[in-house]
């Protein structure tokens, strides 16, 4: 796709100020961007490499997939974020590997030398070896995933409207979400609200309120990372929204026609995968030790064993707390790890003593189910459900959105939707807009 | 893509209330949508057919292509627009032809019978027989065109940033717009402002302000539909924005490397086609008389000769005023024609006398060049240029945007951009977000 000549690497090497160490950050997700920002003004030349030229606020991606928000509202140009940090440069490009011996990052068309390397490459979906399911059940990681899922959801209603065969219409109005984690819960709730509120009045032949939304969780309960009480509350809240929650049974088949769970076939034209994630191939690049999900096992200071100059953070890393418990794949964990590595590198550059091991400060986790319904856990004793949790969820997410403009427009859209019951961005685009 | 059984047509026939005439409108652009809205509550079953489920506000599409607005801001779900008109139904589907003898519209998967047919299928680009140019110089008609052009523009800057070969970098920073009509002028101006303002601070190696934007017009002057004075003012205003305007010479070649005009080759990685449009194949469907651009020649009441029950409006039609002068392909013309046909049909249904021939009421035409610069023509005597014309252009376009929500968010985005010099939606998506 790019067509630079290989002397690229040399040029960058030459442009390096003499003696200034080079820090390369791969990936501009929560972890990588936090590291880059915290390294602004440091005595080093920092290069951020990402396949995209924007940072994606993934926690709200499901709202793009359900026509609540537009892609631009949850994406911020990386360059704009680090515009003031003149020692930080941004390269749009795809990393194909790392040569740890020669200390270079391999891009498609050049090499990027580093003195310190931060791998924040994130995670992708995992279909647990059933990759053939991806065609029928797309996952939700990228903006293109979200617009494709939105297209499928809205097209299903459009096709149902013109469908005369009742069985086919039934199938078009069935929506199956696989995976009862936060993303699956949020998707199922959002589809239910789209069908029961935003689209309710728009059709003549079908009644979108008759759409059947099924949330499938193979484990014993949804939101397994939360206390049982909150899982139970979530399942009830989903039920009130009209979502059919099935727990404790894995999906055994997934194809054109629908899914099979617990021996029963559920016909569905729209299937969404929210079940599994696997780390990006960073561990393979380093041929270092990884867990089954492909996460790089890192030392307490987040460096890769045998490579004190290489760090892995966020979903790329398997980091454990004092008690050997692995940290969860959450945005705040990635952020704090990025900031930690930046602090550690600043200390090293200043020749200071090695830093304390990384410790995650858990300020609480939340998940939203739908209009006026969310859960929040701050400690074993302090937990919230319902409207207050939902307000809090909204405030926190708007607050952490990158870029004031996004905060403003997202808040405006949410208020609008809350008052009018309409959704933000209903038109289908992508393949469909032709 | 759809999979309905052919009994579809029968079903629709059956669902038709006895004796109620069936009006089919093909296309939900300005003309078709105006007709559908004006037929709300009429004594007829109205069906709107469109390939998309949304109406696109094309006059602002160039702002999506230049990262000023998001697609959802200029697209309104058709169903929402006609939600209150219970006698109007919307079908998402692709029309493949018309059988005027049997009075049915052919969709991919079914037939749609009609008593009255309104063809509002709009126009596509025309490369004047050089269709091989489309690959290198995409046009701007659909949302996908706009996001693809945005991707190309922003990717060009990204690639230039990492490009070490000065010639290749030069080519990446050259932007050529072919065609000096309103779209071409608006695109050229918007790219210039994107480079000189929104992106100015974001890059380290390149200076986006060094981008070269060339607007090529084969005819003697840009905005040929406007008085010469305004064309000259526009060319000067573009010059002030840093756009190189070349008039009077056609493009003789267009390829991977760039374009050739007047014997000179201009290397450019990004080429945009704003030169020619051709009507959709409606004339072929009816095998009726058409002009070179493929527009159906219609009678003074906009009906197709020999088919008093078929009407063609907007860019689909070649309609002439009393003096035999063809009406231009403008949104207001299409709108007024849609409203006229609706009135005419209501009169016919009520058995009233045939309507007056269609007359276009020209309330003025405008074009915008950039921040604080636009032109407006209301009559031979009353014309405007500059800041006032620009404010007026903004007000008029916001006012005519379909949907209060879009009006609100677009206005908010414009004000934001005006104050901050930032553009609304810079991230590149589409193929690039992978």
Distance between the termini of chain A: 25 Å
Rg of chain A (CA only)? 23 Å
Helical content of chain A (DSSP H or I, runs of 4+): 25-40%
Oligomeric category: homodimer
Structural domains of chain A: how many: 3
Question: Any idea of the CATH class of the largest domain in chain A?
Answer: Alpha Beta
Strand order of the largest sheet of chain A: 5-2-1-9-21-20
- Number of DSSP strand runs of chain A: 25
The name of the CATH topology of the largest domain in chain A is: FAD/NAD(P)-binding domain
Shape annotation of chain A: elongated
Which structural class do the helices and strands of chain A define?
alpha/beta
Which runs of chain A of at least 5 residues are low in confidence (pLDDT < 50)? 1-16, 429-434
Number of helices, where a helix is a run of at least 4 consecutive DSSP H or I residues of chain A: 12
Mean pLDDT of chain A: 88
Sheet-strand content of chain A, in percent, reads 15-25%
Q: Biggest protein-protein interface?
A: A-B, 65 and 65 residues
Under the CATH scheme, the architecture of the largest domain in chain A is 3-Layer(bba) Sandwich
Biggest sheet layout of chain A: 6 strands, mixed
Walk me through the topology:
The structure is a homodimer of 434-residue chains.
Chain A: H1 7-15, E1 22-26, H2 30-38, E2 45-50, E3 54-56, H3 61-65, E4 75-77, H4 78-81, E5 88-92, E6 95-99, E7 104-107, E8 111-113, E9 116-119, E10 123-125, H5 143-162, H6 166-172, E11 174-178, H7 182-198, E12 212-217, H8 228-241, E13 243-247, E14 251-255, E15 258-261, E16 264-267, E17 270-273, E18 277-279, H9 282-286, E19 296-297, E20 303-304, E21 307-312, E22 317-318, H10 331-349, E23 365-370, E24 373-377, E25 383-385, H11 387-400, H12 404-420
Parallel strand pairs in A: 1-2, 1-9, 2-5, 9-21, 11-12, 11-17, 12-13, 19-22
Antiparallel strand pairs in A: 3-4, 6-7, 7-8, 10-18, 14-15, 15-16, 20-21, 23-24, 24-25
Helix pairs in contact in A: 2-10, 5-6, 11-12
């Amino acid at each position: 796709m790019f067509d630079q000549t290989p002397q690229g690497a040399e040029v960058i090497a030459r442009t390096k100020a003499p003696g200034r160490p080079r820090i390369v950050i791969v990936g501009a997700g929560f972890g990588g961007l936090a590291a880059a920002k915290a390294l602004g003004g440091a005595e080093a030349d920092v290069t951020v490499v990402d396949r995209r030229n924007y940072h994606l606020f993934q926690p709200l991606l499901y709202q793009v997939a359900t026509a609540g928000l537009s892609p631009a509202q949850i994406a911020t140009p990386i360059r704009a974020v680090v515009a003031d940090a003149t020692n930080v440069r941004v390269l749009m490009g795809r990393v194909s590997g790392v040569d740890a011996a020669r200390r270079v990052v391999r891009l498609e068309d050049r090499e990027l030398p580093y003195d310190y390397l931060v791998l924040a490459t994130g995670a992708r979906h995992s279909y647990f070896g059933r990759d053939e399911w991806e065609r029928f059940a797309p996952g939700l990681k990228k903006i293109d995933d979200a617009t494709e899922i939105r297209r499928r959801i809205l097209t299903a209603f459009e096709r149902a409207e013109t469908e005369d065969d009742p069985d086919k219409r039934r199938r078009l109005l069935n929506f199956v979400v696989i995976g009862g984690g936060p993303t699956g819960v949020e998707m199922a709730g959002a589809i239910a609200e789209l069908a029961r509120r935003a689209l309710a009045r728009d059709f003549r032949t079908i009644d979108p309120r008759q759409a059947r939304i099924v949330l499938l969780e193979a484990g014993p309960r949804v939101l397994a990372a939360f206390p049982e009480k909150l899982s139970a509350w979530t399942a009830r809240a989903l039920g009130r929204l009209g979502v059919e929650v099935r727990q404790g049974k894995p999906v055994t088949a997934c194809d054109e026609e629908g899914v099979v769970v617990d021996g029963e076939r559920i016909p569905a034209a729209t299937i969404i995968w929210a079940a599994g994630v696997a780390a990006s191939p960073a561990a393979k690049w380093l041929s270092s030790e990884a867990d089954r999900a492909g996460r790089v096992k890192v030392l307490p200071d987040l460096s890769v064993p045998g490579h004190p100059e290489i760090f892995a953070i966020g979903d790329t890393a398997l980091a454990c707390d004092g008690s050997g418990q692995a940290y969860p794949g959450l945005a705040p964990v990635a952020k704090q790890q990025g900031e930690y590595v930046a602090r550690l590198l600043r200390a090293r550059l200043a020749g200071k003593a090695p830093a304390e091991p990384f410790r995650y400060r858990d300020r609480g986790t939340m998940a939203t189910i739908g209009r006026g319904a969310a859960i929040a856990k701050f400690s074993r004793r302090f937990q919230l459900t319902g409207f207050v949790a939902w307000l809090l969820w909204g405030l926190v997410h708007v607050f952490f959105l990158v870029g004031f403009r996004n905060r403003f427009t997202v808040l405006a859209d949410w208020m609008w939707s809350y008052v009018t019951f309409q959704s933000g961005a209903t038109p289908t685009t992508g393949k469909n807009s032709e």
